[in-house]
Amino acid sequence: MLQGFIHYGLHFLAPLMIVMICFRTQWIKAYAIMLSTFVIDLDHLLATPLFDPNRCSIDFHFLHSYIAIGVYVGLLLPPKTRIFGLGLCIHILADFCDCLLM
User: Fold this and answer.
1) N or C: which end of the chain has fewer CB within 10 A?
2) Rounded to 5°, angle at Cα 97 from 62 and 93
3) Is 100 helix (H, G, I), strand (E, B) or coil?
4) Omega before 49 cis (within 30°)?
5) What percent of the chain has pLDDT over 90?
């Protein structure tokens, strides 16, 4: 239960808090962009089995690989991709916390 609270709290509440503080004037747009980063979970559809509660997604799925994570960190640098990169990094952090709590 704690793992689910941490995981989904990081996925939904952390981005909301960040946009309310850092992107206050455009918080709805920024929050929508951050939530759009769930698209990287599409790589879970290629795994067999599709869902394994004991599998760490970091470096197992290709959009959760260390190379992809490096790209996500790089997206933090240009101002035009910063919100998307931040959402991706928070997404990876949530998944990493799952790995630690297994």
Assistant:
1) N
2) 60
3) helix
4) yes
5) 79
pLDDT of the residue at 80: 96
Token pair 């979970």 in the structure block, residue: 41
pTM comes to: 0.91
Torsion sign, CA atoms 61, 54, 16, 35? positive
Alpha carbon of 97 to those of 46, 51, 90: distances in Å? Answer: 22, 17, 10
pLDDT greater than 90 at residue 3: no
Separation of alpha carbons 29 and 73, rounded Å = 21
Residues recorded for the chain: 102
Residue 69 pLDDT exceeds 90: yes
Q: Tell me the Ramachandran region of residue 78: left when phi exceeds 0, alpha when psi lies from -120 to 50, beta otherwise.
A: beta
- Can you give the residue ranges of every domain in the chain? 2-101
